[in-house]
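Marked as duplicate of an earlier ticket. Keeping the data here for the record.
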Amino acid sequence: MTNTIEKTDVELKTDVLSELKYEPSIKVTDIGVLVKDGTVTLNGYATTYNEKREAVRAVKRVAGVKAIADDIEVKLPSSMHRTDGDIATAAANQIASCTIIPTKTITPTVREGWITLDGQVEWWYQKNAAGNVVHYLSGVKGVSNNISIKPKLTTMAVETAIQSAFKRSALFDASKIQVETSQNEVVLSGKVRNYSELEEAERAAWAAPGVFSVDNNLTLESFGFDT
């Protein structure tokens, strides 16, 4: 018989705060945590966009989190303030120096410290790399990755590649995840144990060549133990 164990909001808040304290890149005293019905709201401020990003990623690792509202504001120290022109130049240079990103395929635009990436690449990992190389730049307050992916493989080939990747993964149970594809658009359904597994399944789906859309309908299963 399986008994379901649900964390109370107080227990979940305690776990979230502990995970934030465990992450060395986060100044937890500047971040507030509110929990209601399993939804975690983060507020307060971070001194860099990377710190804000890591705070959200830390919460995703906590079992029992059903949803996350990210209200953290990036407040840059005066020493880190840069003009949009300086940030745009730095972003363009970072993208150009990344060897896995095809040259002259991505254009960064900066407004009030927020970078928007536009362009087209063949693989998801190239799009992901472009976002990763600019998110930690000094002066950046946020990143919108609008890069599109140009499909080259058939729908069946995409589905086969994703299912094979799931079966190889040691991070989640592939038998609990269903994959459907249509014109290089992927729909994931089924159950995973936590946000980290949900995110990893989506990452594996995006990593398949030719995928340009992933609709992640995975849900979190209840936690329990056998008696």
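See parent ticket for discussion. The chain has a mean pLDDT of 87.
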